[in-house]
Design a protein that fits this description.
The chain has about 180 residues and is an alpha+beta fold. A hairpin with a 2-residue loop joins strand 5 (about 115) and strand 6. It is built from six helices and seven strands; from the N terminus they run αβββααββββααα. The chain has two domains: about 20-125, no CATH class; about 140-180.
Length: about 180
């Protein structure tokens, strides 16, 4: 049975082999930002990029997105960011192996030109993204694990738990266990 979908982005199911500006726009629309971590960066010859065989620089990401073709401007931006972040020489920052594990933010710029035409495209933000690490929710079951592992308050303070309220709850949990 065929399924008709009416309320859909007309670019969602287009055939493309590599990340494009519309993909970045969609990610930004969904998540607010397009922050991706480089799994590996490499140079490859004879790659099918949306029907054209090309040689070029590419990035595969940790996240579940298509690979990205990396133009010269974006390569320069990434190399400069890595040079600063890792405090390494420019030559070393241009080595693609230095890029692995590095997190970048992609943006869509409608003014990007290709072959003299304004076509829009992906640009790497020259500012490294600030990644907010979510603190895990501490649940009652975690107290049991910590208690059974003979965790001390100092161990917990130096490790997983930093919130005073949780420490108070843990102390209460330990006291309750001691009276049983």
């Amino acid at each position: 049975m065929e399924t008709k979908i009416f309320n859909i982005d007309c670019m969602k199911h287009r055939k493309s082999t590599h990340l494009a500006g519309v993909d970045v726009e969609a990610i930004i629309s969904e998540k607010g930002k397009c922050i991706l971590t480089i799994k590996e960066a490499y140079y490859e010859t004879g790659v099918n990029v949306s029907g054209n065989k090309t040689d070029g620089y590419f990035i595969d990401f940790v996240e579940d997105v298509k690979p990205m073709v990396v133009n010269s401007g974006n390569r320069k931006t990434i190399a400069k960011m890595i040079q600063i972040a890792k405090k390494i020489e420019a030559v070393e920052s241009r080595n693609l192996m230095s890029w692995n594990g590095f997190t970048i933010e992609l943006q869509f710029n409608p003014n990007v030109k290709m072959m003299g035409q304004v076509v829009g495209g992906i640009v790497v933000s020259p500012i490294a993204p600030i990644i907010e690490k979510k603190k895990p929710t501490f649940k009652e079951e975690h107290f049991e694990k910590a208690f059974n592992a003979n965790a001390t308050i100092e161990t917990i303070k130096n490790g997983f738990i930093t919130n005073e309220e949780i420490l108070t709850k843990y102390n209460q949990y330990v006291a309750d266990r001691a009276t049983k």
